[in-house]
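Run log, item B.
One chain of 117 residues. Sequence copied directly from the ordering sheet:
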Amino acid sequence: MSKVKITWKAFGNKPEIGRFISSVEFETEFPKTVSHEQICEIVFADTNCYQGYIWGKIESKMSAKRTHTSISVGDEIEIDGQVYICADFGFEKIEDVEIKYHGDSVFRVVKKDKVDN
């Protein structure tokens, strides 16, 4: 059994313009052969399509005030205590990335060794 927390935070915390941080927690079971990165990709697909195994687990738990459910660059998925962030391409462990902001919003998330100035 894995404990999973999805946190939508890519668009900052500005409720006055319809953006805010929201999260949902749940437990799920995947075969041991399914990696954390694969779970992140399943979360991404299910929240973008509004259907699937993960969607069935979270739909009733999500805030009625949410502005979106799809995973975007900067959103986080925590699996058994390890946090992954949706990066420019795929998901990365949060400690391995550099997060670039534009105002309150996440602009880019890239591997630390690939950061350009």
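Observations after the first pass:
- Helices lie at 36-49, 53-58.
- The mean pLDDT is 84.
Flagged for discussion on Thursday.
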